[in-house]
Specification:
The complex is a heterotrimer of chains A (99), B (181) and C (599). With 99 residues, chain A is an all-alpha fold. Chain A contains 3 helices and no strands. The chains are: A mainly alpha (99), B mainly alpha (181), C mainly alpha (599).
């Protein structure tokens, strides 16, 4: 296990997350993709922490976890709103700003 | 350089389950596959000498976020008893961009060639606790405020506004229901 | 007091008066006090000028004092100050004396004006005298230009004094436009001079080419200011102003500023024989052309106006012949007798309440003093031997003798005949013959009116004898010799007078009156300018309008249009779909990373 491998893994996860974000229509599915991307960042933090030593990297992973949880909470609340407004969770519907 | 089977297996699990997350046709399946990815990540943390992180990952992500997601999917389902179809669109475009991103990131990684032969000494959970409540105390407290704000914000967002007369959907909802009866 | 102090006092006194009247509006609105302030200013000016003259007669040298003006990087771009020498001192005295006479005359002539207008009139007079003094004492061309423009402004204001009268307002605007058009020449001439020599001195000697350019441009301004053909058309119209104004500005002093400029800038003109050739011809043509038109005028002031054009033509021709002194001398004598003539005409108009020659007749019985003044002025203007005009005109004609072409000389001789002829016509029509109905009620004005006439009559008679002294002052050659030209000139003037008596005594008409009247009413030059205005200026204006509307505005509109179009095409980029934005963010990251890697 080398740092390079870890970074490559994180990159793959990030690319998959971008793919999901670009192709999924439902808001929840897009949130899932965002989670993937956040996870990829966490993996980077953790691996840097492992190879560098010291607790800082792990502390940052913890912070990132907390922020992700908050993001999911707010994101799901928005999804609820969207559903209530349009009867569907397809984010494409939420494009009024364009008109 | 000997081949690291443990890492290979964990990495394969993560990547494959992540692919299922973005490709699964059923939204519930996608959420469950995300659970697998997160578990894999927890395993990776364990391999990276971060057992505390692995525990937290399992607790908050697999226990909290995935459950929350499933709730989200359930609550926003239109019809009971039918699978929630996760629609996809523009797969080619997404693939091109995603692979381009991966290629570029890999290229950068390879070019900068971060080569650290010997892993540093392990940071124990006690070290992490000291850092959290010592060096990063302010960040820690601010984060708690952020969580509080997020929770309050989420509640405010989804709260029904009472003055809205029942049975009279907003014009947009009406338009949607005309299109999709 | 030192000469410099005196010169400054002479220049600034009218400015103090003008400033006082401008600032203290109650004083101005009261009328009569304004006149006294102005008169005091002029009197101080004249007194200082006379003291300067006395000092000079006592052997005082030229006085010059300047202070730097518009300093830039430690170097003065120009200087401002005074220069008192053999040219500016006589001019200063002429200007102050004539101005004082005219102002005194105005007290009586403008008596019936409401106090406010009366005060305004004298304020402008004080301002004019200051402006003219600035021109006269200026040590370089830049200050001269400043005074020149000030003079143009006061001229505009005074021509349009009766601004409620449409004709006067139009005449003022016309005079302003014509002279401004010409003044562009002055401005560009100054620019050329500054660029080529780095200064505004008339003594600086650039190359012949530069001198030709500068003098050519300056001469354009002279043509405008001194009412030379074909820019002369504003001067007859300027007679819409009060008659004393015509006497001071449009006969004696202001229109002579052009001649004064050439006399000043003589070293420059000496380097430009081409410009001088043009001047010679323009002056000669103007002298004859204006004299012919003077022959058929029925307005007494217009006769004098055309006569002024004609006499200025003499001066310009003399300058063109390279005899600056001859032009300057004629300027001096002309200032006196033309101011006298105009003031006498003012006296007549005041008595008859009409400008028209047809309303006059037999006035010599009613207005003996005015008649005497008018006769003296006329004879002087006609160049009858012994009178001031004779000496200067003789000098002008002599200076044309022996030039490459004899035609200008002959033209000016002819103009001399015509001058005597039209002045004879004027005299006979206005002062001799039957007493007309309006004339029968005429009576001489008070001493404020007759006094200036007497004062001005003296130099009109005698200033010709000062030629020798004036010549030594400006170190020019002057000798009265009995040659062919003086004799011919005398014969011409006497013949003109005689012919006038023969023709007009019986109420006859000049030969070719018909043709000339046609010429006058058809006013070829006027129409040409009006046409040029319509075709040229309006054409340019409409072209500019078109450019403004379609090119400039088009550019602006195109900017707006392209912003709108660009916006609506960029709008298509904004799909409102989150996944498209996600992709775009990815693209941005890719580009940034690639830049970082490949750099």
């Amino acid at each position: 296990m080398t740092l390079m491998n870890c970074i490559l893994l994180a990159s793959a996860l990030m690319a998959i997350g971008v793919y999901g974000l670009a192709t999924r229509k439902q808001a929840v599915a897009m949130l899932l993709s965002v989670e993937l991307m956040a996870n990829s960042a966490n993996i980077l933090f953790a691996s840097f922490a492992h190879f560098r030593g010291g607790p800082t990297g792990q502390v940052f992973v913890l912070f990132a976890l907390a922020i992700t949880v908050a993001e999911v909470a707010v994101g799901l609340a928005l999804v609820m709103l969207l559903y209530r407004r349009h009867g569907d969770t397809a984010l494409d519907l939420a494009s009024e700003a364009r008109q | 350089m000997n081949f690291d089977f443990g890492f290979a297996i964990v990495a394969a699990v993560i990547v494959v389950s992540a692919l299922f997350v973005v490709r699964a046709a059923n939204l519930i399946h996608a959420v469950l596959w995300l659970g697998v990815t997160l578990l894999g990540t927890a395993a990776l943390y364990a391999q990276l000498n971060a057992p505390f992180l692995a525990g937290v990952q399992v607790l908050t992500y697999v226990g909290g976020v995935v459950t929350l997601m499933i709730f989200g999917v359930m609550v926003t389902r239109r019809h009971d008893g039918i699978d929630v179809v996760a629609q996809t669109e523009g797969a080619d475009r997404g693939f091109i961009f995603a692979s381009a991103l991966f290629v570029v990131l890999a290229l950068v990684t390879w070019k900068s060639a971060p080569h650290v032969p010997n892993p540093a000494p392990v940071a124990s959970s006690a070290d992490i606790a000291r850092a959290l409540l010592g060096e990063y105390l302010i960040g820690f407290e601010v984060l708690s405020l952020l969580l509080l704000a997020a929770i309050v914000g989420a509640v405010v967002l989804v709260r029904r506004r009472d003055p809205e007369p029942a049975g009279e959907p907003s014009p947009a909802a009406a338009a949607v229901s005309e299109v999709n009866p | 007091m030192s000469p410099v102090t005196l010169a400054i006092v002479a220049t600034v006194a009218p400015a103090v008066a003008a400033l006082l009247l401008l600032v203290l509006s109650p004083l101005r609105h009261r009328g009569a006090p304004a006149a006294w302030v102005t008169l005091l200013g002029s009197l101080v000016s004249l007194g200082a000028a006379v003291m300067l003259l006395v000092a000079r007669l006592g052997g005082a040298p030229d006085a010059r004092a300047t202070i730097p003006w518009i300093e830039e990087r430690g170097r003065a771009m120009a200087e401002i100050g005074i220069l008192i020498d053999g040219v500016s001192l006589p001019m200063l005295i002429i200007v102050c004396l004539v101005a004082l006479c005219v102002q005194v005359f105005s007290i009586a002539y403008m008596h019936d004006e409401p106090p406010r207008a009366f005060g305004r009139y004298f304020t402008l007079h004080a301002l004019f005298l200051f402006s003219m003094n600035v021109v006269v004492v200026s040590p370089n061309l830049l200050q001269l230009f400043a005074g020149w423009e000030l003079v143009g402004l006061t001229s505009y204001l005074l021509i349009g004094f009766y601004f409620a009268k449409p004709a006067a307002a139009q005449a003022a605007v016309k005079a302003f436009w014509m002279t401004k058009l010409a003044d562009m020449g002055f401005l560009f001439g100054l620019l050329v001079l500054y660029v080529s020599t780095g200064g505004f001195e008339w003594t600086s000697a650039p190359s012949a080419t530069v001198a030709t350019w500068v003098t050519g441009l300056l001469f354009l301004a002279v043509v405008g200011k001194s009412a030379q053909f074909p820019l002369h058309i504003w001067l007859p119209d300027a007679m819409e102003g009060p008659t004393p104004v015509s006497a001071l500005l449009h006969a004696a002093t202001m229109v002579a500023a052009g001649v004064f400029l050439v006399v000043r800038a003589d070293p420059l003109f000496a380097l430009a024989p081409g410009t001088r050739e043009v001047m010679l011809w323009v002056g000669s043509i103007t002298a004859v052309f204006a004299a012919l038109l003077a022959l058929v005028q029925h307005d007494i002031k217009k006769v004098l106006a055309f006569s002024t054009c004609s006499q200025l033509g003499y001066m310009v021709a003399a300058l063109g012949a390279g005899q600056a002194f001859a032009g300057f001398f004629h300027l001096g004598t002309h200032a006196f007798f033309k101011a006298l003539l105009f003031l006498a005409a003012g006296s007549v108009i005041h008595a008859v309440h009409s400008n028209s020659l047809d309303d006059m007749g037999g006035l010599r019985k009613k207005l003996p003093l005015t008649t005497a003044a008018f006769v003296i002025g006329s004879l002087s203007l006609a160049g009858v031997p012994g009178f001031a005009g004779f000496f200067s005109k003789d000098l002008v004609l002599t200076s044309l003798e022996g030039k490459a072409s004899w035609i200008p000389w002959a033209m000016l001789l002819g103009a001399a005949f015509l001058t005597a002829f039209y002045m004879g016509r004027l005299l006979i029509k206005a002062f001799w013959g039957e007493l007309s109905e309006r004339s029968s009620h005429a009576h001489e004005g008070n001493v404020a009116m007759t006094g200036p006439l007497v004062v001005l009559a003296i130099p009109s008679l005698a200033s010709g004898f000062l030629g020798g002294w004036l010549a030594t002052q400006s170190s020019a050659q002057y000798e009265l010799h009995l040659g062919l030209t003086p004799v011919l000139a005398s014969v011409m003037s006497l013949a003109g007078l005689g012919a006038a008596i023969l023709v007009f005594r019986k109420g006859g008409q000049a030969p070719f009156t018909h043709v000339l009247e046609k010429l006058d009413t058809f006013s070829v030059v006027d129409r040409t300018w009006a046409g040029a205005y319509r075709i040229g200026l309006l054409g340019v204006a409409s072209l500019a309008g078109w450019i403004d509307r379609y090119l400039i505005d088009g550019l602006i509109n195109f900017t707006g249009w392209s912003a709108l179009e660009g916006g609506s095409s960029a709008r298509r980029l904004q799909t409102g779909l989150v996944r498209d934005y996600a992709l775009l963010v990815t693209v941005g990251v890719l580009v940034l990373v690639l830049i970082g890697v490949l750099r």
